[in-house]
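Could you join me in thinking about how sequence relates to backbone shape in a protein? To get us started, please write out a protein record for me. Would you write everything just below, so we can both look at the same thing?
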Amino acid sequence: MTHLPIENRNQLVEYLESGIKPLQDHRIGTEHEKFGFHIDDFTPLKYEGNAGIRALLKALSTDFGWEPIEEDGNIIALQNSEQSITLEPGGQFELSGAPLENLHQTCAEIQFHLRQVRSVAEPLGIGFLGMGFAPSWRRDEMPWMPKERYRIMRRYMPSVGTLGLDMMVRTATVQVNLDFCSEADMVKKFRVALALQPLATALFANSPFSEGKPNGWLSYRSAVWRDTDPDRSGMLPFVFEPGMGFERYAEYALDVPMYFVHRDNRYIDAAGHSFRDFLAGKLSALPGERPTVADWEDHLTTLFPEVRLKRYLEMRGADAGTGDTLCAMPAFWVGLLYDQDCLDAAWRLVGNWSAAEREQLRCDVARQGLQAFTPRGPLQKMAEEVLHIAKSGLQRRACRNDRGDDEAVFLDILLETAMSGKTPAELKLERFHTEWQGSILPIFEEFSFWRHNDVLPKAF
C-alpha cells in the first residue's frame, strides 16, 4: 500500500494520525550514535579495509545473524526483526532499538548491543566514543559512507548553511521515540518537548572540543545545527499556535525542500524542490509523476527540528554520551511525557514562554549549559524541578527490575548533574586544563565504550 500513488492530501495527514495508540501500547524506542576509531592511533574508521566499517558490519552479520542491507554492493546497514544498525554520513554507528515497554528493557538492549559490537570490534583494533562532536578530527579527515542519499545531501548542504557538512560527519546524538494516544495528546507532548529540549541539551552537553582543543561551546553539536539548514531544523514556533495538529505539521512538511526520491533501488536528486510540487505532479526530476506514501515517509525522515513528528515523536536535542547517560536520556522524557500529571506539571512551567524566549534559551544553553537563564530564572534550578517531576512519573509507572528498582534510578546521573551545575562537557574541560595537560588524547582512553570500568549503568 505504501507504494501506491497518493490521491489526496488527506493521506498525508492520515499517515501521521496512524501513529495514535492506546496508552497500554505506548512504547520506548531509543537510538544512539557513536564514533568508531582505531585504538592504536585514534584515527576515524574508513569504510573499506580490514579494520573498517564494512568489516565490522560483516563480522556482526556473521557472528550474530544480523541481516545485511546493501546498496550498490556495499553493506550499509544491518537489521533483525525489530532493530537496525545504520551508518550516519561520517560512519557514526547507530543502533535503532526495538519499541520496548520499559526503561529496564531499553538499558538492557543498549548493553547487549555494546557487548556484541565489542566482541567484533576489539579483535579489529576498533574502539567507540560517545560524544556530541568528534573531538579531534578535521572535517577533511572524516570518511564518507557509500550511500547515495548522503551524496545528494553533501552537494546540497553548502547551499543552505555553513556547517551542514560538519553536522553530517562530525556530530552524534542519542534520541528517544515516544507515542501519543490522540491528536491533542500529540500536540501537548510536542509543545512540552520542544520547550524543554534546550534543558535536555544542557543536561547532556558533551561536545566542548573540536580539532583537539576547546571550541568555546558546551554543546557544539547544538551550535552546528543552528547553521545547518533553517528550512528543516529549529524550534518550530507554529507548534505552539492555535490550530496545531497533524494537518498543520503536514502543511509544514509539504514546503520543506526535498533531498531525493527513491525509485528502483536508486536515489534521484530532488534537492531544493518541495513535496508540494511533487504532490501536484510538478517535480522536475520526475515530471508528471506523483508521490507514494513511501515517498512521504522518506521525506519526513529528512526534516530535522528539535522534536520531529512521524508516527511518533522524536526527541532530538541531546549530545551522544556513554554509560549512564544513554539510559538517562529516554528516562528523562518517559518520566515527563508518559504520565499525565507530569505532562501537565511540565506544561505549567513552560506554557507561557514566547517563541523568542524559547529560541533564546536554545541559543544560550549551547555555550552556558545549566548556567543559562529561562524566563522563570536560572536553568539549573529549573532542571532540578523538572527532574523531580520526571522522577515522580517514573515512580508512578512502577516498572521494576529483578532487584526491585523502579525506572527512576536512571535519572540519578542527571540529578547529580543538575545539583552540581556542571555538564559532562564542563567536567571534561576541567580535566583537559588540569590532569590532561592540554591533550585531547586521554578522552579516547577514559570515555570510550568498554575502555574504562563504567560500562554498565549504576542501575545494573
Q: What stands out?
A: The first strand starts at residue 28 and ends at 38. Residues 453-460 have pLDDT under 50 and may be disordered.
